[in-house]
């Protein structure tokens, strides 16, 4: 597996160098034999089979299981959870000796920060958030850069010059997807129209409501939009389903290469490409660092330059426009194009 180079310096870590059976000072094999623990992975809503964000994190633990011999336990959040619910999930992992304990998604930011204080000998990780803590690894991604490339592809492949973006929840993280996509479209085809809409203003159910995304996508398709990019977790499956029923329309997937997701196989011929976040790499990096007695802590950014985000080519649907996409990628990496993280007002 390709290693992602760090672009934000990590803090020197000491949290997992204790001498207890659950600390990372021992090999994982020794720790597991002693405690029957391993890696604790706390999913965001939608669970492992969301074909998207959670699934990517799960791949990281599966790779660690195969390559490092670690044991893994996974727990899933539910709609409408409170901060106390998330803290209890993380606490249960730490109390049982799981190390590291990883929260998937920004919703775990505060709970990881709170629980990490109570378990200083356990390393915690969180994806898409930057909580404080000497024993916390914050894994963040340049979603806006990958989304820019998706915008380039959409602008070049659209027949109607009308494209759409569907976000699960209107927050700062998902706005990064929107901003990059809109900028990529407009830089490529200034005359193109981009319609951006959200399923929910501030309810995490937006990542677990395929019916709502399907209805939203149908409205866009009815208005002449022929390419829809959804950044909405499991909800995106509903959008992809709606697109699959319209001849000539395309869906753009997110987080994982959704063309290759078994649960979306029936729609794969309508998935133009996907903006891939290598969450699996970040999760594996943290687990491996503990196994090597040097647990990662601090902030680590996975960007386009270092392979943290990418645009999937499965299906060969963007082969004809790949030179233009490659040119845009080069401009971003070389700093000629600065991709915005907030949508243009």
UniProtKB/TrEMBL annotation:
<dbReference type="GO" id="GO:0005886">
    <property type="term" value="C:plasma membrane"/>
</dbReference>
<dbReference type="InterPro" id="IPR050957">
    <property type="entry name" value="BMP_lipoprotein"/>
</dbReference>
<keyword id="KW-0472">Membrane</keyword>
<keyword id="KW-0732">Signal</keyword>
<dbReference type="Pfam" id="PF02608">
    <property type="entry name" value="Bmp"/>
</dbReference>
<comment type="similarity">
    <text>Belongs to the BMP lipoprotein family.</text>
</comment>
<dbReference type="InterPro" id="IPR003760">
    <property type="entry name" value="PnrA-like"/>
</dbReference>
<keyword id="KW-1003">Cell membrane</keyword>
<keyword id="KW-0449">Lipoprotein</keyword>
<dbReference type="InterPro" id="IPR028082">
    <property type="entry name" value="Peripla_BP_I"/>
</dbReference>
<protein>
    <submittedName>
        <fullName>Lipoprotein</fullName>
    </submittedName>
</protein>
